[in-house]
Amino acid sequence: MDLDLPAEIVDLQDMCRDFAAKEITPHAARWSEEGYFPCELFRRLAGLELMGMLVPEEYGGTDAGMVAYVAVMEELGAADQSVAAAWNAHSTIASLPLAAFGTEEQKQRWLRPLATGEKIGAFGLTEPGAGSDAAGIATRAERSRDGWLINGTKMFISNAGTDMSLGVTLLAVTGTTEGGARRYGTFFVPDGAEGYAKGRRLEKLGWHALDTRELVFTDCRVPEDHLIGVEGDGLRQFLAVLDRGRISVAALAMSLAKTALRLAVEHAGARWQFGRPLTAFQGVSHKIADMATEYEAARALVYRAAWLADRGRPFATEAAMAKLYASEVANRAASHSLQIHGGYGYIRESEISRFYADAKILEIGEGTNEIQRNVIARALTGGHR
């Protein structure tokens, strides 16, 4: 088994590492403290052709594949989790429904400006009363004389309120079958649509530079051609693209563990107590050993899931495993690293404090870890739990 990345992906990763060191790391702490979403940075990412890595070339993307995507995420996320999370939401669940199910006109109209980075995308699934229970959403879309009328509220939506937001792709209930089962539809609601309102920015524990807010739809009218794919298939469409999103969150978590480990090693080597560096103490060195081992294990899971996806092989279970393990590794690594930093780590101006605050959401977003365990268990037991 060849575990080396192809040369072209290594070159891409090196470029992204250099870019992140120059354009992200020096500013990340300030963006976090100010809650500032750096549109100018995403326009520079667009200049590097990184905003449409999973979109076909004919629609402005590069179709680079999941392994290349994970390699880029490893560098962006190691520099700043807010930037990487925004890039992730845009690149996966905001763009992939259009790429997979949109009409040619929809792809040219909405997918192209997303893939080229002219605009940034958002996806609206979670609601005040529905998150892990995606089928339990309350937002409804009803047919009207000239299209669809949408009513409902979406919660914790990223990228919808920036200066470069194009609109939001959302899931809504469209009716019921003859047997009483719910039907769902996926819709694109552009910025400026009548009846579409954005709430204030939410103040979060972490991901401070990521724009996250509530979206409210009150008799929001969209034309018929804003329905993506087939009415009734909306939930299936969302689930079809979710697995790639899980790989991307796993890669985001892996990148956090990588930075937590680096910061721990740097601080432990430079900080002296009782006449010796912290690395001379077994309690500290064992923490570092555990962090390094778990990071490598998480990295192997993430890249294997991406490798399977690129080869068109089943990868849903592997994506769930990668997301579950990598997110828990990230939280353990952040905790160990902050402990090694001691009081210095607890000060907000320390780099590890920002990554520590960012870690917890990785066990929640893109399907909680409890949901990941359900997915894995069903795959292994045939649905019996």
UniProtKB/TrEMBL annotation:
InterPro entries: Acyl-CoA_DH_CS (IPR006089), Acyl-CoA_Oxase/DH_mid-dom (IPR006091), Acyl-CoA_Oxase/DH_mid-dom_sf (IPR046373), AcylCo_DH-like_C (IPR036250), AcylCo_DH/oxidase_C (IPR009075), AcylCoA_DH/ox_N (IPR013786), AcylCoA_DH/ox_N_sf (IPR037069), AcylCoA_DH/oxidase_NM_dom_sf (IPR009100). It comes from the Bacteria. Residues 232-380 form the Acyl-CoA dehydrogenase/oxidase C-terminal domain. Its cofactor is FAD. The keyword Mitochondrion does not apply. Residues 10-118 form the Acyl-CoA dehydrogenase/oxidase N-terminal domain. Residues 122-220 form the Acyl-CoA oxidase/dehydrogenase middle domain. It comes from Actinocorallia longicatena. This is Acyl-CoA dehydrogenase family protein. Pfam families: Acyl-CoA_dh_1, Acyl-CoA_dh_M, Acyl-CoA_dh_N. Keywords: FAD, Flavoprotein, Oxidoreductase. The keyword Flavoprotein applies. PROSITE patterns: ACYL_COA_DH_1, ACYL_COA_DH_2. Belongs to the acyl-CoA dehydrogenase family.
